[in-house]
């Protein structure tokens, strides 16, 4: 199990990403728009830089929803490899069969 503080910090980041997503997208569009003057694009970049760092989507860490483990994460299942193996062995994941040869 991951530290509770790390899991909570990640949840706060996810909330900030959702809160600032539209504003961030609009500012990025302005900054990339080549029809605008250089000064307007620069001001858009400055406003973008003033947004909270944790509102950037790449700062959110993929974590297992069962254990909170940050590594060995399967995106499709939103679960770590260890949690997947445990739940699979218990028969709690439909269609998953433990292989042996």
Strand tally, please?
Answer: 2
Mean pLDDT: 94
* Helix proportion range: 40-55%
Number of domains: 2
Keywords: Ribonucleoprotein, Ribosomal protein, RNA-binding, rRNA-binding
Function: Binds 16S rRNA, required for the assembly of 30S particles and may also be responsible for determining the conformation of the 16S rRNA at the A site.
GO molecular function: rRNA binding; structural constituent of ribosome
Family: Belongs to the universal ribosomal protein uS14 family.
Keyphrases for this structure?
ribosomal protein, Ribosomal_uS14_CS, 101 residues, 30s Ribosomal Protein S14, Chain N, 2 strands, two-stranded antiparallel ribbon, mainly alpha, Small ribosomal subunit protein uS14, structural constituent of ribosome, 4% strand, 50% helix, RNA-binding, Helix Hairpins
Descriptive account of the structure:
With 101 residues, the protein is mainly α. The chain has two domains: 1-61, Helix Hairpins (Orthogonal Bundle); 62-93, 30s Ribosomal Protein S14, Chain N. Helices cover 50% and strands 4% of the residues. Strands 1-2 form a two-stranded antiparallel ribbon. Helix 1 (4-32) packs antiparallel against helix 2. It is elongated, with a radius of gyration of 20 Å. GO terms for molecular function: rRNA binding; structural constituent of ribosome. Belongs to the universal ribosomal protein uS14 family. One of its GO terms (biological process) is translation. Keywords: Ribonucleoprotein, Ribosomal protein, RNA-binding, rRNA-binding.
